[in-house]
């Protein structure tokens, strides 16, 4: 895995999203990618309480997704919290050099990625090597929704809401079972909604590699969902007892 | 005739090749989209595959599924406050052109 060595510069992006001076009671934290980059940077270049409030606001908005990202690699909550704190120290230290060439979200995830790499060292690299050794899925394979366990809520009359809800549950369980590097790509691209180019920048890989790995991650989720639907065990072998 | 044969002979293996670009809306030609969709409409197995694949790719709602415990924010802010970054005697940021 390549570490990032970026020194962003350039123009800030369009203005939309969060009022950084807002009251939390009436203006709850917005999703990570809606942080108003221009206002945020402007607020951080103010002095005193405006700057402190802006930084606090950033922490409020970003700590959840960042912690979810970190915890996939670092199983200990306390250690994950330490890494999170290191990320914010890094953000604070490096912000004066951040001029907005990349999105703020991308930049912060890049810092988080580096902090995780620093913390895990060779272990992180080994995780990736193990993942890369997994063969790419070749064919869709078989899937028959009629095989679903009739004793479960699947047997309810066709109802898109029920079906979607059940499917989301299966997908959530499958996502939790992804190996770390497969999760990393999926998390950044499909959950956080970053662009392929942004993810490539964060991970220091090519957009083509992002595409290939993301496809493998999604495919792994599909395969796991099928296993769950068919009552197969987590290693995909055999049917569980009815 | 060639077009109809092309549609008829898109195999399941090709669906796996194209599904990423289809889900991203990036298939390079309308003709390929048409062949892909023609296969999907005729093949239940691939239709289900596409349904699951698209559901997996549409994951933005999972952002809110794993909310961190409230004490994480408290502890993080407390740490940053002690470091002087979110309250108290906050040190000035270094100037943008300052060398480290």
Q: What does the main sheet of chain A amount to? A: none
Number of strands of chain B: 0
Total number of β-strand segments of chain A?
Answer: 0
Give the overall pLDDT of chain A as a whole number. 71
Q: Provide the low-confidence segments of chain A as ranges.
A: 1-34, 132-158, 238-242
Number of helices of chain A: 9
Given as residue ranges, the uncertain stretches of chain B (5+ residues, pLDDT < 50) are: 89-100
Strand content of chain B: under 5%
Q: How far apart are the termini of chain B?
A: 69 Å
Radius of gyration of chain A: 21 Å
Helix content of chain A: 55-70%
Average residue pLDDT of chain B = 79
- Note the overall shape of chain A: elongated
Tell me the strand percentage band of chain A. Answer: under 5%
Q: Would you summarize the structure shown here?
A:
Chain A has 242 residues and is mostly helical.
Task: Provide a descriptive summary of the structure in words.
- The complex is a heterodimer of chains A (242) and B (100).
- Helix content of chain A is 58%, strand content 0%.
- Chain A has 9 helices and no strands.
- Chain A has helices at residues 37-44, 48-73, 77-94, 104-120, 122-132, 160-176, 180-191, 196-203, 207-229.
- In chain A, helix 2 crosses helix 3 (77-94), helix 3 (77-94) crosses helix 4 (104-120) and helix 6 packs across helix 9.
- Chain B has 5 helices and no strands.
- Chain B has helices at 2-8, 12-23, 30-42, 44-57, 70-82.
- Chain B is elongated and about 65 Å long.
- Mean pLDDT of chain B is 79; it is low at 89-100.
- The chains are: A mainly alpha (242), B mainly alpha (100).
- At the A-B interface, helix 2, helix 3, helix 6, helix 7 and helix 9 of A face helix 2, helix 4 and helix 5 of B.
């Amino acid at each position: 895995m390549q570490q990032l060595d970026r020194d962003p510069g350039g123009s800030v992006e369009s203005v939309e999203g969060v009022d950084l001076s807002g009251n939390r009671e009436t203006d709850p934290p917005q999703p990570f990618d809606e942080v108003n980059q221009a206002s945020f940077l402007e607020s951080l270049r103010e002095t005193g309480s405006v700057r402190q409030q802006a930084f606090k606001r950033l922490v409020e908005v970003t700590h959840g997704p960042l912690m979810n990202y970190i915890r996939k690699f670092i199983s200990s909550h306390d250690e994950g919290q330490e890494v999170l704190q290191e990320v914010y120290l890094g953000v604070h230290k490096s912000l004066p050099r951040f001029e907005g060439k990349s999105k703020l979200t991308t930049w912060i995830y890049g810092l988080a990625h580096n902090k995780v790499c620093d913390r895990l060292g060779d272990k992180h690299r080994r995780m990736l090597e193990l993942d890369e050794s997994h063969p790419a899925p070749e064919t869709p394979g078989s899937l028959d929704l009629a095989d679903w366990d009739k004793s479960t809520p699947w047997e309810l009359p066709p109802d898109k809401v029920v079906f979607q809800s059940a499917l989301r549950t299966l997908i959530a369980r499958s996502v939790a079972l992804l190996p770390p590097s497969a999760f990393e790509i999926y998390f950044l691209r499909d959950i956080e909604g970053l662009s392929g180019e942004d993810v490539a920048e964060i991970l220091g890989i090519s957009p083509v590699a992002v595409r290939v790995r993301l496809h493998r991650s999604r495919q792994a989720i599909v395969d796991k969902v099928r296993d769950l639907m068919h009552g197969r065990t987590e290693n995909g072998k055999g049917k569980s007892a009815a | 005739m060639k077009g109809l044969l092309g549609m008829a002979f898109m195999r399941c293996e090709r669906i796996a090749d194209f599904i990423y670009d289809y889900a991203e809306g990036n298939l390079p030609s309308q003709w390929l989209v048409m062949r892909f969709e023609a296969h999907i409409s005729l093949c239940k197995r691939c239709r289900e595959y596409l349904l699951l694949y698209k559901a997996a790719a549409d994951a933005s709602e999972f952002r809110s599924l794993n909310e961190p415990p409230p004490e994480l924010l408290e502890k993080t802010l407390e740490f940053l406050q002690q470091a002087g970054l979110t309250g108290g005697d906050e040190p000035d940021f270094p100037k943008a052109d300052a060398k480290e």
